[in-house]
Structure formats: structure tokens, C-alpha cells
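HUMAN: Can I see a protein plus its fold?

ASSISTANT:
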Amino acid sequence: MKSKITVFILCYQLASVNHSLADSLTWCAYYNWNPWIYPASKDSYAGVIIDQLELFKKNNPNIDVKPIVIDNWKRCQAEVASGHITMILGANKTPAREKLYYYLPEPAFINFSTVGVYTSADNDKVDNINKIDDLRQFSLVMVRGNSYGSTVDNFVRLYMDS
């Protein structure tokens, strides 16, 4: 029985290696993330990430690139971590993800975001906001998946989730 398990593990590892050497790549993403990636029609996507992917395809015409549509972000990540899908498009780089995934040494592009606060002109509650801690009394609304840098992300994680 032990030899069958060993053979299965070896075959699985060889299949994984052959997949990574193949002239095809598969990808998944969080598909509703304007302007980075969003549905353009029933069977296609558009956005900055797709533009970058098209440039990659143009520069590497011998590599077949195809999407694997998974409507669950956590499952997409798990499929890439297990090697069933080649890559994730547009995943923010975090220390936890660096343990699971390989990132390009130099990103194709970096999203430098700013945090904008909007309020009515006569709202004196926001007149004295001088540091991030002053925002504790407010409710925060963010687009899912966006990162605003370690200062804001840590603030949200520590104070807004509780």
C-alpha cells in the first residue's frame, strides 16, 4: 500500500512540473474590481490588468493564456496556491500571501492610491481631523480588496473590524 501512495505522489508532482513548463498559462482574479478588472461582456473582461495581460500575450504569442472563472476570491487564491491555476491577476502583495505565492521581482505596475474623504460643506465634525486616530468615531466604507497602505490598512484592521 505504501508504494502506491508514493507512486501517486510522484505522478502528481510530475504532472505539476509538466504543467508549469507548458506553453499555456491559466489565471483567475477578483473579477469586479474597477478599473483594474471588470466584466466587459458575458465572456470577456476589461480593465488595466487585462490591458497588461494583452501586452504580455502580444510579447509572448506562443503562450496560450486563458481565464478560469471562479466566482469566489478565496477559492481562486486556493486554486493558485495548490497549482491548479497558474496565476492570480492583481492580488495585493501581503506578508501572508508572500508565503504562498511567487511574486514578480518587479511589478508590471503599482497602484498608488489616495484616501479621499467626502462630507457636506457644513459638517464641522471633520474640521479637526489631524491624525488617523481621529477617525475612530466615524464609520468607514471601502471598496472590497483595495489597500491604502500599511498605515490605513492597519488602522482598519485594528479599530474598524471590532
